[in-house]
Design goal:
The complex is a heterodimer.
Chain A (H helix, E strand, L loop, with lengths): L4 H34 L16 H11 L10 H17 L18 H10 L1 H11 L3 H32 L4 H7 L11 H16 L11 H4 L9 H26 L12 H20 L7 H30 L5
Chain B lengths: L19 E5 L11 E7 L2 E8 L7 H7 L6 H4 L7 H16 L5 H31 L4 H24 L8 E2 L2 E2 L7 H24 L2 H7 L7 H7 L4 H5 L6 H4 L20 H24 L23 E8 L4 E8 L5 E7 L1 H6 L2 H4 L5 H11 L3 H5 L1
Antiparallel strand pairs in B: 1-2, 2-3, 4-5, 6-7, 7-8
Helix pairs in contact in B: 3-4, 4-5, 4-11, 4-14, 5-6, 6-11, 11-14
Classes of the chains: A mainly alpha, B alpha+beta.
């Protein structure tokens, strides 16, 4: 039986969406266990022995059952809409990621561009949440968020464009194909620098420590989501982790060769997942070993260091490609 | 600052015409208890601070007048509950001064060991919570917090073996100490301080080589030498501002003159300088503990008999002030006695209270994120501020 193309795309999207939600739920468990190890703790243990494998499910259930509190002074429409506006782009970024050749929702010919464009849209939901809550902490956090996203999207895009230039294509599957000979992270000098720049910009784009000034528990309590509870809070959390996982997947795809790896072809998605988890763990590692830096210092790092550096890197890549031709090695 | 004095607002030439008033506390993750700061913000920059205290006021000084000299030492620990040994010591020292009671050498050494272990425990908690302030509860700071708490736990275990309590000890009594060391305790203390000494090296490696940690602390919250002396801060704050002042050195009590130690002084006056002072104090405390354990004399632990009744200690008419160097600075206790078993009047000089007074002078001009970093570097305990 063959399905019409629209139905097939919808079915694929449904499967990917649910797989992502499951993955995100377990990414939280992974992070908690990893952090616990770093801090000489055990982490979740009792809910679902051994090692708390049911903990994420329990958390999700708990959040669903929580009372949904709306502040009296909140702008109700904006406040209620914000989590959804925040979540949708975070989920949409997975639309163009192929998990193996021909295994994905849509392998657009401008896949990377789509990813970068959509992932910046989360800021709209974030600002709506900060504004709609009518809370000073949330407002300050939303202001910081806009500052930070504007500053870090450029270096993020520039760093992501280096593999694009090297591969000569914006299509995700073509970029992976171009790494058949040599993963871009091993491309002499340019590859490593771009990967580091990508990781730093990712941290900022995902609002992770040391760039988590919008959440800033010790200053702004919880930042833009200080007034959210229950399922709305869960949606924001889900979006945040989905975004993080999405950028990890993109990093693995752009620099670490995606699904390429030894073994039969069906191992491809697993290789891809393993690489994405590796990137995710690096990000987590940074999170648990740094202090948060100040808003002006964050902006200084972006505008004075990261942006010029990535720009120069992009130019250098352009020269290399112009002289040696695109493609890995 | 007196009430009549207007709040200090720093003019920064801000073009906009709106200022944001933001309440930080009394319920706030990094208010270190219940402290309320009303911040006036221009964008992210703080231009004015109103500090409101008193949310933890428990009438401690009045309480001291209703309890006898035997009863109060175990309550005294509740003023500064993070360094409980300090305030107990200040109280009994004041009583001993009025009554001219001698304290046996062994008790003096035990008091020193307790005080220095307490300093280590208190500084552990400070380091953890301060990093928590800068890193966030889920951020990098939580890692240091959990490490520091782990070390503090070891000290608390030693205190538990000594007194049976982990937070509020009741270890001191007028004329000496209530408990002698249990068998094998000194070996365990030595192991503990050896272990902690290694860990301090680890913290320093982890923090001082971290550029982000340095940019967050260096040049932030500078207290000038003059300001420190005018406001009357003490402890690590004044030593971080280039003043070599330590009660243990300036007015040695409880045989501190017997020990060889260094009073760390840094001249920059910023958060990093205060951090450095405390890190050196860790090591110096360990040094003093080792010397005290080595030279611990035999003999009685108290010049007075053990506690039998609440009215047992009688003090002649008179008044006395005793001060000790606590983890946060100079802790003083002033007692006026009318000859009855209870003091006529008692007054605390809390180190945190005086240290906190410096906040409105140094916070304006900094960003919101720096407020919590500065606040953490002052290391206030609100039990002691409000009493």
């Amino acid at each position: 039986m063959t399905l019409p193309p629209v139905a097939r795309a919808a079915l694929r999207a449904f499967i990917v969406l649910n797989a992502i939600i499951l993955l995100v739920t377990y990414a939280t468990l992974l992070e908690r266990k990893f952090a616990a190890r770093m801090q000489s703790r055990i982490g979740p243990y009792y809910v679902g022995r051994p090692h708390g494998w049911l903990q994420p499910i329990a958390d999700a259930l708990k959040l669903m059952l929580k009372e949904d509190v709306v502040p009296a002074a909140a702008d109700r429409g904006v406040y209620n809409l914000a989590p959804v506006v925040f979540l949708v782009p975070c989920m949409l970024i997975f639309a163009t990621i192929p998990f193996a050749p021909e295994l994905g929702v849509a392998d657009l010919n401008i896949g990377v561009l789509f990813f970068l464009a959509v992932s910046s849209l989360e800021i709209v939901g974030l600002f709506m949440g900060g504004w709609g809550s009518n809370n000073k902490y949330a407002l300050l956090s939303a202001m910081r968020a806009v500052n930070q996203i504007i500053s870090y999207d450029l270096p993020f895009v520039f760093a992501a464009l280096v593999p694009v230039l090297l591969a000569g294509s914006l299509q995700m599957s073509a970029i992976v194909a171009a790494q058949q000979g040599l993963w871009f992270v091993f491309y002499p000098v340019i590859g490593q620098l771009a990967f580091v720049a990508y990781l730093v910009a990712t941290l900022a784009a995902e609002n992770r420590v040391p760039f988590d000034i919008l959440e800033a528990e010790s200053e702004l309590v919880a930042g833009f989501r200080v007034e959210y509870s229950g399922m709305k809070f869960a949606l924001i959390q889900l979006g945040e982790y989905a975004h993080m996982l999405g950028t990890s997947f993109l990093g693995a795809l752009l620099f670490l060769g995606g699904w390429l790896g030894p073994g039969p072809a069906w191992l491809g998605p697993l290789w891809f997942l393993a690489k994405a988890v590796l990137v995710f763990l690096v990000v987590t590692w940074v999170r648990w070993s740094f202090v948060r830096i100040r808003v002006d210092q964050i902006l200084a790092i972006s505008w004075k260091l990261l942006l010029p550096a990535t720009l120069v890197l992009l130019l250098a890549t352009g020269f290399v490609v112009a002289t040696r031709g695109a493609g890995g090695g | 600052m007196p009430d009549t004095q207007a709040k200090q607002v720093v003019e920064l030439g801000y073009g906009g015409n709106e200022r944001l008033m933001m309440n930080m506390g009394p319920q706030h993750p990094s208010s270190h208890g219940v402290f309320r700061m009303i911040l006036t913000l221009e964008g992210e920059t703080v231009v004015g601070v109103d500090a409101v205290i008193g949310y933890l006021h428990r009438c401690h000084e009045k309480l001291g007048e209703t309890l006898t000299y035997v009863q109060y030492p175990s309550i005294a620990s509740k003023t500064d509950y993070v360094a409980a040994m300090t305030s107990e010591l200040a109280y009994v020292s004041a009583v001993e001064k009025i009554a001219r009671i001698d304290v046996p050498k062994r008790a003096q050494y035990l008091r020193v060991i307790a005080a220095e272990l307490q300093r280590i425990a208190s500084h552990c908690l400070w380091l953890g919570t301060w990093c928590l302030d800068m890193g966030g509860a889920l951020g990098g700071g939580a890692t240091v917090f959990l490490y520091a708490i782990r070390e503090r736990e070891m000290v608390l275990d030693r205190f538990e073996e000594l007194t049976g309590a982990r937070l509020l000890y009741g270890f001191h009594q007028v004329g000496g100490t209530r408990y002698d060391v249990p068998p094998g305790w000194d070996t365990k203390v030595r192991e503990t301080v050896d272990f902690i000494e290694q860990r301090i090296d680890e913290y320093e490696a982890m923090l001082e080589h971290n550029t982000f940690f340095r940019v967050r602390t260096q040049g932030v919250g500078v207290i000038s030498r003059e300001l420190a002396q005018d406001v009357g801060v003490s402890g690590p704050l004044i030593r971080g501002s280039g003043v070599n002042y330590d009660v243990r050195r300036a007015e040695p009590y409880s045989s501190y003159g017997d020990f060889d130690f260094v009073v760390p002084v840094e001249t920059e006056g910023d958060c990093y300088a205060r951090y450095r002072v405390r890190m050196v104090e860790f090591r110096q405390s360990i040094r003093i503990i080792r010397q005290a354990l080595d030279g611990l004399p035999a003999g009685p632990i108290s010049s007075r008999p053990g506690v039998k009744s609440v009215g047992q200690v009688r003090v002649p008419k008179g008044e006395g002030y005793a001060r000790v160097e606590g983890a946060r600075g100079e802790v003083g206790c002033y007692i006026i006695s009318d000859g009855s078993p209870k003091p006529y009047r008692m007054k605390w000089r809390g180190a945190s209270f005086s240290n906190l007074a410096v906040l409105p002078h140094i916070v304006p001009g900094h960003k919101v994120a720096d407020v919590v970093a500065i606040m953490g570097s002052v290391d206030p305990v609100f039990g002691e501020v409000d009493r």
